[in-house]
Specification:
By secondary structure, this protein is of the alpha/beta class. The protein is built from six helices and five strands; from the N terminus they run H-H-E-H-E-H-E-H-E-H-E.
């Protein structure tokens, strides 16, 4: 949907599903998730590093990595968010829950973002 998760909710579709689905996605990709993980120091060595913080905005405001941009969960995968993320950059995903960061990274990879990492 053009408006991402917010649009999905507005259309009346559920946004909370069975944990089994998330766990199945994690199980299928758990080896891939490990390959995505990168330390901040290594990330800063990338040519076009872009830190993208998907945590709750209050947590982002409380403290975040210098230069990180914030993406609100409700705007995740919306057209404006996708336009904001540059496919030519090395995206470094930040989230409190490693599994969620992994799902975000895997989804972006499926959407043809060539260089996606998860901050360690």
């Amino acid at each position: 949907m053009r408006d991402g998760i917010k649009g999905w909710k507005s259309a009346g579709y559920p946004t909370v599903g069975e944990a089994d689905l998330l766990n199945a996605l994690i199980e299928v990709n758990k080896n891939d998730f490990a390959a995505f993980v990168i330390a901040e120091e290594k990330a800063r060595e990338l040519k076009k590093c872009e830190f993208v913080d998907f945590r709750d905005y209050r947590k982002f405001e409380k403290g975040h990595i210098k230069g990180a941009s914030h993406v609100d969960y409700d705007d995740m995968f919306s057209k404006p968010m996708m336009e904001k993320l540059n496919k030519s950059n090395d995206l470094v995903i930040i989230h409190d829950i490693p599994q969620v960061a992994g799902v975000i990274a895997a989804t972006l990879k499926l959407m043809d973002y060539p260089s996606v990492h998860i901050l360690k």
